[in-house]
Each structure stands twice: as structure tokens, then as C-alpha cells.
Amino acid sequence: xILKFYDKNNNPDDIQRVVDILNxxxxxxxxxxxxxxxxxxxxxxxxxxxxCKLKKIDPRKHNLSIICYDLSxxxxxxxxxxxxxxxxxxxxxxxxxxxxxxxxxxxKIFRNRKEVGIRVPDNNIIREICRxxxxxxxxxxxxxxxxxxxxxxTDPELIDEKFGEEVDLVIDGGIGGIEPSTVIDxxxxxxxxxxxxxxxxxx
Length: 203
Known about the structure:
Strand content: 15-25%
Largest sheet: 11 strands, mixed
Shape: globular
CATH superfamily: DHBP synthase
Low-confidence stretches: none
Number of domains: 1
CATH topology: DHBP synthase
Radius of gyration: 16 Å
Structural class: alpha/beta
CATH architecture: Alpha-Beta Complex
Helix content: 25-40%
Order of helices and strands: EHEEHEEHEHEHEHEEE
């Protein structure tokens, strides 16, 4: 199933439809400010396991990230000091993933890992869904085969053609990007860029 969304003024019924899918343990594909991503309700274990299986990743070894609507309830899911919070506030919403020490409110699948990635994308579609859900969304970029056309992770019609049978909904938010987020590790005292992506960190 594919559903067209716009940057603003989306039908509240469409938003509620997506929220219902997430609350029911469904998996969705959606645009962000970097690339199209696949995600689910971050506090529900079963759909997280489905996504890890789809991406062929082991959650015990692979960092998992969540999307929050803003930073207001960040302390429920991660431990963050004042300096890091100020840095995040300066950069977000934006194309960054901040790796923080995880808090125990996240499901058991996260607890094998001491860290969690936090995203607040500069994309109104997924943030509006996140706000309406009133919970974080587990997020990970779409898997892509090495020699596969890039359109299969950027064009919603082709994304639906490839993944439509494996997910509950594809959100068409227009053609997506090809550059990932910049990842900043903030688990220690000094923030460290561990992947340079779209986001440029101002000094």
C-alpha cells in the first residue's frame, strides 16, 4: 500500500491511518531529510525484530536509532549531559544522528546495546507522524543491493514495487535523497564524528 503525503496540510485521517498501523505493530517506509527509511513503533519489540530480519542485521551488534518529534522527552530514552543537549539543540531538526547512552525505557532488544542513535529529521512528514504517535519511531535506512539502481531507494513507486509485500505501508513524500545522516558519537566527554554525511557540524 502506498499513500501520498505532502510537506504540510496532510489529511488528519491519513496521519491517523499511519499511527494506527504503527500502534498495531506495523512497519512503514517514509521519507526523511536524508534518505528513505524503514521504521516502526520504537517501543514494540515484534516489529523491531521484523525490521532487523528484513535488513539482515543482528540487533545485539548493530546500533539502532530512533526518531523523536523534538528533544522535549529525550531523557526518557537516552542519557544526555548539558553540553550534548546544547549541541543537539543547535543541529536539530537536521540530517544528524546522535549516538547517546541508552536509557532503560527502551525495549529489551535495545538493552543488549548500551547506545541508541537519536534523530530529529528536518522532514515535516515523519515528524508529524511521530508527534501524533506520541512515541519514538525506530528508524533505519532501506537496504540496497550493491549493483541495484539507486531509484529503488529514492523513488517511492519503485520502493513500493520492491518492498511493498514486506511492509504495511509506503509513504510517498516525493523523490528521496542518497546521502545518509552525519553520525556523531556523544557517549564520551568529547563528541566525535564517526560518519560524515549530509549534516555539516558548525564549529
